[in-house]
Write the structure tokens for this entry.
Amino acid sequence: MVARAERPDRLRERYGPWAVVTGASSGIGRATAARLAASGLNLVLAARSGAILDRFAALLAAEHGVEVRTVAVDLASETGAIELERATRELDVGLLVAAAGFGTSGSFLDGSLAAELDMLGVNCRAVVTLCWHFGRRFAARGRGGLVLMSSIVGFQGMPYAAHYAATKAYVQALGEALAVELRPAGVDVVASAPGPTASGFAERAGMRMGQALTPAAVAEGTLAALGRRTTVLPGFLSKLLVYALVPLPRWARVRVMGRVMAGMTRHRRAADAVFHGG
Ligand SMILES: NC(=O)c1ccc[n+]([C@@H]2O[C@H](COP(=O)([O-])OP(=O)(O)OC[C@H]3O[C@@H](n4cnc5c(N)ncnc54)[C@H](OP(=O)(O)O)[C@@H]3O)[C@@H](O)[C@H]2O)c1
């Protein structure tokens, strides 16, 4: 049997030897990091939860014999993404997976502006900052990959998750365009747009999901598409939900998505009604 280090692996050869994964403490980022470690890439894991990252790093290093470092960082802060990039400067990084992100839901006017601006920081400012820094590094070495996490909600507006959907439309448009612009420099870009995925996301966003993908399925579909496609709808559920709406005009898709999100946040309105004696 050939040892893993000698076995050819597309991801390690094209995007190694180091990958940076944000959002690696949970869900899709964690599953993507595990998949990359299995391919033999060394990893820098980033999120706010340093202790969780440290335990996960030890596990991956023991299971896969790769080197794993951690950076505990708040990507909502103006300087978080820059701190992370600086912490990786001495490493030969060939892949950035920008999976850190979160959502909000419910009435836009009743929500917290501070939470919306934090979300803008993590979902958009940190992503563009990391793409710029790592994009330049990858272009200079003539090889690399950027993985951006968009969402099926980014293909039209979504009432009751209006700003979250807007951040994902931003990521989707950025990824599509960079895929074309950076290709001549040897940098592959994929925008991954999953449907509902069972992770820490729904609880933080205050949503309830019915059917959901696994983070491992999203990670697998996304990494398989990197270097082959510029947008991927990972898993059957993502494709079904997007293609079902394709025949509708955009305004009608917005209405349908509003109904879907009203359903996913119904439990909160019911709880409010009980609390206020309604
Ligand atoms: N789950 C879904 O249904 C779904 C569908 C489509 C797209 N997505 C997108 O997929 C990405 C990953 O989401 P997920 O489902 O894996 O959610 P998750 O399980 O909640 O993971 C989110 C990750 O982002 C990190 N994060 C959140 N805020 C951060 C901050 N301020 N600074 C640094 N890291 C932060 C979290 O780590 P800490 O809390 O430790 O900081 C965690 O590792 C997100 O961009 C999300 O928008 C998710």
Q: What stands out?
A: The CA atoms of residues 7 and 217 lie 23 Å apart. The two ends are 67 Å apart (CA to CA). Strands lie at 18-22, 42-47, 68-72, 93-98, 144-149, 187-192, 231-232.
